[in-house]
Design goal:
alpha+beta, Peptide Deformylase, 5 strands
Length: 137
């Protein structure tokens, strides 16, 4: 179900709690909401739809993915960039990101996986994991 976006920086600054199997519908709502904004958005975290759980959804070159409890376990190639955010009003803001990241997460079956991402997809995931950690750009 497509949900309304949260724009309150106080709420978005709350650190998210771990997701469980009972939260699989949050992942679907997040994916539905992201796809409804696909013209202007490439990633979302659950707190952007009002839920403080560690769930993110993102577009990886046209393939939409949901991760539960994502954690960056390796990173390399630090760089400076500017990013916008659908939940935050105003111009893009400065951010430090990494060109390559290794992410440990749970999939829709809540099986643990580890994957490596590079380039723009890595940047998207870092932004959304920051949301889970209550970090705003």
């Amino acid at each position: 179900m497509v949900k309304e976006l949260v724009h309150d920086p106080m709420f978005l600054g709350i650190k998210s709690k771990p997701a469980s199997k009972e939260d699989v519908l949050i992942g679907q709502d997040l994916l539905d909401t992201l796809m409804s904004h696909r013209e202007t958005c490439v990633g979302m975290a659950a707190n952007m739809i009002g839920v403080t759980k560690r769930v993110i959804a993102f577009c990886d070159n046209g393939k939409y993915t949901v991760m539960y409890n994502p954690e960056i376990v390796g990173k390399s190639g630090e760089f400076q960039t500017e990013e916008g955010c659908l939940s935050l009003l105003g111009a893009p803001r400065a951010a430090v990101r990494y060109k390559t990241i290794r992410v440990k997460y749970q999939d829709n079956s809540f099986a643990w996986k580890t994957s490596v991402y590079t380039g723009f997809t890595a940047q998207i995931i870092q932004h959304e994991i920051d949301h889970c950690n209550g970090i705003l750009i």
